[in-house]
Write a structure and sequence with these properties.
Radius of gyration: 17 Å
CATH architecture: Orthogonal Bundle
Distance between the termini: 66 Å
Number of domains: 1
Oligomer: single chain
Number of strands: 0
CATH topology: TerB-like
Number of helices: 11
CATH superfamily: TerB-like
Length: about 180
Amino acid sequence: MGLDLLKLFGLKNGSSSESLEHGSLFTRLSELLSGLSEREVAVITGISGLLGQVAYADLEISDKEICKIKSVLQSNLGLDEQHAELVVTVTKELTRELAGIEDFRYTRLINEHCTKDEKMQLLKALFEIASADDSISSDEDLAIGNIARDLLLTREDFISARADYTRFLDVIKNLPKKDTG
């Protein structure tokens, strides 16, 4: 049994145009979070999708990153533990399965529904995820930079958000030590 591309892209099973527009993660989360408004599900989709994207930038999602994503969803979005766990499970599954195919949808959802201040909070949360294992790889840093650009934030905004996390950057940690003698 091969990969069903029509199903993967939401073109089967009578998918609504909304599902096609917002993608697989939105569709799955809409089902799981049926008590929330479309806007709330859209914001949760955008944020969890981007958190997953950064966690998977190095092609693995660690347990520490999963715990941090869950924590961010609970503290920043007010999800209870059960809903946060469901969102994390679906996000992790689809992040690996889709491997970047729908990433543009997440920034679009955030741009449609969030203010600049909320985007800056998200950028800091992305650095929290990337630094969950006490290290931010070049791939994770690049992914966050690309997300910042796609969120229509400036380079200065990116640098400001990253300032508290520079000690975790692999590129900084791996600099040769200066001889002080």
